[in-house]
Amino acid sequence: MASGPLDGIRVLEFTQIIAGPLGCQFLADLGAEVIKIEPPTGEPWRLAAQFIPLESKTFIGLNRGKKSLAINLANDKSKEAIHRLVNDIDVVVINYRPDVAKRLGIDYETLSQIKPDIIYLDNTAWGRDGHLADRPGYDIVVQAFSGMMSSVGKITDAGAPQVGPAYADTTTGYAICSGVLAALFHRERTGEGQKVETSLLINALTTHMSAFHSVPVADQIQRDSFLHTLTESREAGTPYSEVLQKRDDLLKTAAQGNVYYRVFETADGAIAIGALSASLREKVRVTVGFEHNRDEPGYDPVNSAQLVIDASVIAQVEGIFLSRDTNQWEEVLTTGGVPCAPVKFVQELLDDEQVVSNNYVIELEHELAGPIKMQAPPWKMSKTPPTPQGASPSLGRHTDELLTEIGYSESDIADLRQNGAIL
After folding, report:
1. How far apart are CA 130 and CA 331, in angstroms?
2. Residue 12: CB partners within 8 Å, gap ≥ 6?
3. Same domain, yes or no: 141 and 31
4. Is there a contact between 37 and 185 (Cβ–Cβ < 8 Å)?
């Protein structure tokens, strides 16, 4: 049973993989009825590492609370069904190329003629303009292009940059949800629908914060110096790992003396501390037991003499942290008022006391997979609490139900199935 602030809102989802499905899952969590359009073979994420036919952990984790309409959009009979369905839809979320959407009759211009107040969220990899606009893109390639990958900078044994979780995709999922919510708010005020656009690229750039910004009075010399070195290195064919080292050498900051905002190995694991103010840094020094001139007047993190001091302090503090185990350090640092946390693996967290205490884990029953546990919706609301509407749907689970709602008879549905229009 739907509940939440979006109860009564209907969403038609033409998306695959991560960003679009995650954004639409958030909308479902908030109470919207989300109808996921899938090809009769299933979207690619269903087919990745299937543990039973047409079901995968990745798909289940991104599609809870939705309905599945398995339909062949390339079939002429399917176009009529989609257009009939759009009459009673509030939001369309799509991540197709513009030419594909137009060819299939699901572009904004076509659907807004059918439903003038439709909200149409268009997500792409690169944005709709520019020389990359029509190029396909996934999280890994946008991480590479956006500077996200080089910001991490680590190299695997195979010589390739390491890629962590799908940051570009997941941040775009939040952008999709918030863009839809803003458009719904505008429609509530004015009655107007509209087209909303976002992309993996803009969300990846957003995660860089000040590293992407240009403030000439603050960073022009440093930025120009690095870009000059980068050009020279590429012309000389310098290996990527060496370019990273040059980058780190040129862009030295206070991080050279950073014993206040980093991870330390302990006797049995690792712990992170975060102290970004002078008062917190003093607590680190007192609690851990070392001296450092970091907050004294005239501290210059790139001065050669200071670099020697900082390197000595880093080595000293790293040695101190190795003298106790993680639990001991957590107790000592917390007592001393230092923000800290042990470094954990995600596999540990389903039963973690902090996670469980906040009800951040929910239990659902999947039609085929049985009981599952997963992350709760990322909000708590006192008046309209989000409640997941169930696990992810099996492929085509709601095809007949949805077509019946828009006037198709049993014989009509059988004809569509016979003609390969639906599963």
Report:
1. 53
2. 35, 37, 82, 85, 86, 89, 91, 92, 93
3. yes
4. no
Residue 157 pLDDT class (50, 70, 90 cuts): low
CA atoms within 13 A of residue 163's CA, in its CB half-sphere = 15
254 falls in which pLDDT band (50, 70, 90)? very low
Q: With contact defined as beta carbons under 8 Å apart, do 398 and 16 qualify? A: no
> Same structural domain for residues 248 and 385?
no
d(CA 366, CA 51): 13
Sign of CA dihedral 244, 245, 250, 252: positive
Cα separation of 408 and 423, whole Å? 15
Structural domain harbouring 272: 254-345
Q: How far apart are CA 64 and CA 212, in angstroms?
A: 35
Please say whether the beta carbons of 40 and 71 come within 8 A: yes
Name residues whose C-beta falls within 8 Å of residue 258's C-beta, 6 or more positions apart in sequence.
314
Phi and psi angles of residue 48, each rounded to the nearest 5 degrees, phi first: -90, 115
Give the Cα separation of 412 and 423 in Å (integer): 14
| Residue 2 forms part of a structural domain | no
- Tell me: do 49 and 66 sit in the same domain: yes
- At 314, which CATH number? 3.30.1540.10
Annotate 74-98 with DSSP letters as a single string.
TSHHHHHHHHHHHTT-SEEEE---H
DSSP 233-246: HHHTT--HHHHHHH
Size of the chain, expressed as the number of residues it contains: 423
Q: Where are the alpha helices (DSSP H) in 116-266?
A: 139-146, 148-152, 167-190, 200-207, 216-235, 240-250
Gyration radius of the chain over CA positions: 26
337 with 396, same domain: the answer is no
In the block, residue with structure tokens 């997979």: 369
> Residues 369-390: what's their mean pLDDT?
95
- Per the structure, how many domains does the chain have? 3
18 and 145 together in one domain: yes
C-alpha 341/C-alpha 44 separation (Å) is 37
Asked if residue 231 and residue 273 are part of one domain, the reply reads no
Residue in this structure with the two tokens 């008062």, named with its chain if needed: 279
DSSP-assigned beta bridge partners for residue 14: 94
Tokens of 410: 């049993």
Residue 245 pLDDT level (bands cut at 50, 70, 90): confident
Per residue in 82-137, pLDDT (tens digit) is 999 999 999 999 999 878 999 999 999 999 999 999 999 999 999 999 999 989 89
Written as six digits, the tokens of 170 are 């997941």
